């Protein structure tokens, strides 16, 4: 549900006036984020804190149990609503791209805009989605940018480029950005350098960079004499890049298990038929989600039973309607991939990972810079990842069908009593055609610790 325009926003005052109220807090050192923070946070429901509220350290806190309960009480979105989840910003970004149309905005409004801009970036890959808005001292927006993927200008540089292209002076401006500006040479120069060179006076950022390689921007900017305020919207910024943030924190790809099931938890009928349990609307949604991950994995059981293509399609019903960006296709297990398998058709690269150890699978995928793995295998692979506590989120599509027999969604994975069953937190629910979609996330941090193998933004 789109957030009302005026929710959480300051009165329309100039940037200087807004920031002056917090001048005693602007010297505070950046804080780190507990990696377990916001494990199940819900971007679509929670209103962002205002910058003022976020700067009050007594209010900047963890998600409460009440927050979590609230997310399960949300009404259903329509199928159309839920298909747009990834594209939706808080404000109408399209409207805002013309700098000349808008009057002065507050820092909170600029932050909202920055989050909306960030959502235009790719939802997967080695880099996070980041948005940046530049405000002149009178609050006028003079530049907007977002990160379009590894190797392209970071959001701050994109915003500076826009201002410079429009001959708008950046000296004395405030940069409002959804992630702490980077302070390292990756594929592009450090943003701290670009902001300093542009004469930026103040930087407000939502989240400290969890990537040790890129972090340190806030300190470097402060040392360069720039006023630095942040982090001011950690939960919202983590939601924006949930998989990226947790992949960095946990040192391994984040795993989402996707399943299409009947009301009685069956993923195939007794005769093996499983196409299609869910409606076309649900399959469209699933294809949109495939565009947000780096890799999709199945076991050889699903490969031999269903011969799936594992492509991300812009139209789920048209096999040739491939999305421009295709996930890596991964087959788990010892049996070979048949030469005639549909997997060999157009789509992302295909790899086979023999063996049955989920941790080794994730280590191998981390080496390939996979941040977000979608498991679309059957009951066996799902059970293996659950038993290893390596499922972080579940995308469940539930059809109003009862089979009474057939393949259970998951094989036994060691739970014998109710108290031992891991509980999941619902973070999203929608009706898709005749089906229910629900997204769940883990409520406790993973047990296994990995040696971090994943780098961050570049
Ligand atoms: N409705 C749905 O959402 C959905 C989704 C997927 C599948 N399905 C249905 O599920 C059925 C297939 O089920 P399935 O359980 O055979 O599929 P699966 O879990 O995808 O594949 C199982 C096979 O993967 C290999 N494997 C890989 N990693 C493993 C591990 N850690 N532990 C054990 N085995 C591992 C094993 O084969 P090797 O001997 O080759 O090692 C195993 O037999 C089909 O009827 C399919 O239609 C339904």
Given the C-alpha coordinates, what overall shape results?
Answer: elongated
Structural class: alpha/beta
Structure summary, number of beta strands: 15
- How many individual helices? 15
> Strand order across the biggest sheet?
10-9-8-11-6-12-15-14
* Biggest sheet features: 8 strands, mixed
Ligand inventory reads:
NADP nicotinamide-adenine-dinucleotide phosphate
The end-to-end span amounts to: 33 Å
Helix content: 25-40%
Low-confidence stretches: 1-49, 52-96
Average pLDDT number: 80
Q: For the CA atoms, what is the radius of gyration?
A: 23 Å
Indicate the proportion of strand residues: 15-25%
**Quaternary status:** single chain
H-E order: HHHHHHEEHEHEHEHHEEHEHEEHEHEEEE
Notes on the protein architecture:
By secondary structure, the protein is of the alpha/beta class. The protein has helices at residues 15-20, 51-55, 65-72, 79-83, 93-96, 107-118, 155-165, 191-197, 217-223, 234-240, 242-250, 280-290, 300-306, 358-367, 379-387; strands spanning 131-135, 141-146, 174-177, 202-205, 227-229, 254-262, 266-268, 295-299, 328-332, 350-353, 372-375, 393-399, 407-408, 424-432, 435-442. An eight-stranded mixed sheet has the order 10-9-8-11-6-12-15-14, with helices on both faces. The chain has a five-stranded mixed sheet with strand order 2-1-3-4-5, sandwiched between helices. Helix 8 (191-197) packs parallel to helix 9 (217-223). It is elongated. The two termini are 33 Å apart. The protein binds NADP nicotinamide-adenine-dinucleotide phosphate. Residues 259-260, 267-268, 272, 274, 277, 298-302, 305-306, 332-335, 356, 358, 376-381, 384, 407 line the site of NADP nicotinamide-adenine-dinucleotide phosphate.
């Amino acid at each position: 549900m789109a957030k009302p325009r005026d929710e959480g926003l300051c009165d329309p005052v100039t940037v200087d006036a807004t920031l002056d109220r917090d001048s005693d807090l602007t010297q505070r050192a950046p804080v780190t984020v507990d990696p377990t923070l916001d494990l199940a946070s819900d971007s679509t429901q929670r209103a962002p804190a205002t910058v003022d509220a976020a700067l009050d350290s007594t209010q900047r806190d963890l998600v409460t149990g009440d927050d979590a309960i609230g997310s399960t009480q949300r009404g259903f979105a329509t199928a159309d609503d839920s298909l747009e989840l990834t594209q939706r910003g808080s404000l109408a970004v399209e409207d805002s791209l013309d700098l000349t149309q808008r009057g002065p905005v507050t820092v909170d409004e600029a932050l909202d805009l920055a989050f909306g801009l960030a959502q235009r970036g790719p939802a997967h890959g080695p880099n996070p989605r980041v948005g940046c808005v530049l405000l002149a001292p009178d609050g006028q927006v003079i530049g907007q940018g977002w990160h379009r993927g590894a190797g392209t200008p970071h959001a701050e540089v994109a915003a500076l480029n826009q201002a410079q292209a429009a001959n708008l002076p950046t000296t004395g401006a405030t940069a409002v950005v959804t992630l702490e500006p980077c302070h390292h040479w990756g594929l592009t120069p450090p943003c701290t350098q670009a902001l300093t060179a542009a004469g930026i006076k103040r930087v407000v950022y939502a989240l400290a960079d969890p990537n040790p390689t890129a972090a340190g921007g806030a300190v470097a900017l402060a040392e360069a004499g720039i006023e630095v305020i942040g982090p001011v919207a950690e939960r919202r910024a983590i939601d924006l890049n949930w998989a990226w943030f947790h992949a960095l924190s946990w040192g391994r790809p984040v795993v989402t298990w996707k399943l299409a099931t009947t009301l009685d938890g069956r993923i195939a009928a007794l005769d093996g038929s499983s196409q299609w349990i869910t409606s076309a609307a649900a399959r469209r949604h699933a294809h949109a989600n495939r565009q947000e991950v780096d890799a999709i994995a199945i076991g050889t059981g699903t490969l031999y039973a269903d011969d799936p293509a594992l492509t991300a399609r812009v139209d789920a019903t048209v096999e040739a309607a491939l999305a421009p960006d295709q996930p890596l296709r991964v087959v788990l297990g010892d049996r070979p991939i048949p030469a005639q398998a549909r997997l060999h058709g157009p789509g992302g690269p295909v790899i086979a990972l023999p063996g049955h150890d989920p941790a080794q699978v994730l280590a191998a995928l981390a080496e390939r810079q996979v941040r977000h793995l979608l498991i679309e295998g059957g009951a066996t692979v799902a059970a293996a990842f659950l038993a290893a506590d390596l499922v972080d989120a579940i995308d469940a599509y539930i059809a109003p069908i009862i089979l009474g027999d057939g393949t259970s969604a998951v094989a036994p994975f060691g739970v014998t009593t109710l108290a031992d069953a891991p509980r999941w937190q619902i973070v999203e629910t929608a009706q898709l055609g005749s089906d229910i979609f629900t997204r769940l996330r883990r409520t406790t941090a993973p047990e296994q610790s990995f040696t971090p193998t994943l780098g961050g933004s570049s």
